Amino acid sequence: MSTLLLTSLCVTLFLMPQQTNAARAFFVFGDSLVDSGNNNYLVTTARADSPPYGIDYPTGRPTGRFSNGLNLPDIISEQIGSEPTLPILSPELTGEKLLIGANFASAGIGILNDTGVQFVSHLSHYSIEIIS
Question: Is residue 109 part of a domain?
Fold first, then answer.
């Protein structure tokens, strides 16, 4: 369902005419599909800062994106004529760069009790029971 929504948004942006006075700030919320490297600054096992991630990115190096290159927010930023949004936890995101937007997405995040950090604690609980 979320893939269909993201695809629809992407197609809509490609077909929309460019407006010169349109707002350019772009804020991203989500999970690993749109994470641009926030997990590089968190203590987590959900990381994408080593090969093969990033092999098709312009620098050819891992960036923390859970893809081999650009992710959907990067492509949307290009389409609206903006720079890619930086992770909200990036030390580079200060002053004028914050006016471009920010990426709040984080892989492994969840809003339900059964997802995210609580899911990991459930797994830890079960592994302790299995060992006992």
Answer: yes
